[in-house]
Specification:
This protein has 363 residues and is α+β, with helices and mostly antiparallel strands. The protein is built from ten helices and 14 strands. It has two domains: 221 residues, no CATH class; 93 residues, Sandwich (Immunoglobulin-like). The strands form four sheets. Strands 6-5-4-3-7 form a five-stranded mixed β-sheet. Strands 11-10-13-14 form a four-stranded antiparallel β-sheet, with no helix packed on it. It has a three-stranded antiparallel β-sheet with strand order 8-9-12, with no helix packed on it.
Length: 363
Amino acid sequence: MKKVITTLFSMVLFFTIVLAEPFPKQINIFGVQILASEQTPENKVIHAGKILAQYLDNDEDGVVDNQAVVDQLISVGATLIMHNTENEAESSNYDFPNHEHFQDLFGFETHPDFNANSTNDAFDASLEEVLHLITHEGYAIVYPNIFGEAHGSEIANAMDDARGGYFVEIPSQYPEGAWYSYYDETCTYDCMITEYTYWALTSILGAQAYEGRLDEIGDEWTLNTPTLVQAQDTAVYAILTNSNYNLPTVLPDNEYNGFEIMLSIDEGSIPETFALHQSYPNPFNPVTNIRYDISERVQVRMEIHNIMGQRIKTLVNKEMDPGYHSVRWNGTNDMGKMLSTGMYIYTISAGEFHSVRKLVFIK
């Protein structure tokens, strides 16, 4: 909902100022922010958080692997911005960070079910865009001689070899034998290095080798397996596997064990409609989160029922102000007794709004 202020100018002329709203969905990972729009699905925002956490804490012990890089990201306010679609991004009125240290990621291209060891309908773009943020805003600054995105750094020299020469602008045709041949004319030399780092590292980690992937990317990058990178692009392989830089050695996925990643909902903004969202995670053990939107002050009641329709838990029963809300359920009934594994139903009644959804509890 856009906030509008109308001001009287010279007692005659009226003009309208549209104020930017804060992003309603936010996650903080080791001090690095993810800001997401209302339309971006919750599970995709959390998935992006898990990818970011695993890139920074690859052994998943809850401690960052390269503190210098994380400190640099924090110092410039490095931020991942998520809209669900490009059209939403173009028309949104959210309050963007007052700097240029952010990276876009769209919900439609984020795929939590991506499996690098199986067939996929689409690549998970969070593996790319999150890594761009980390290398461009972090590694390139902390290690300018190695990862600096300018001619003469070690990663730039490796890229020049991969492209078959040093090209400030994209050539009309890359030399025969080049294995990195990006043709996007909007991508400058430093941007080319960011992309090259992504292709090389994710190939080393095994993200680009699933069936059919080479057909999709072969016109831009041909070394899509760890073996190919190690054998042909020895320079970049040596850089990206050097333990001094603590780059990831395991491909991030939709599971992170360092700590629980929670979505923060800005309840200061007011939703336009009532809504009950799908619980996350689902199935769950031990706790799931249920989000619901209240568009006006009203009595709210949320309950858990078994598949027979019997009420077993009351989660919410009070008058509530409008906003984005959430409640957690730990699989117990009103007496605090743990329930058995199975499907359950959760319902909400808020004035004239009623909604029902299902979830699965696994002991």
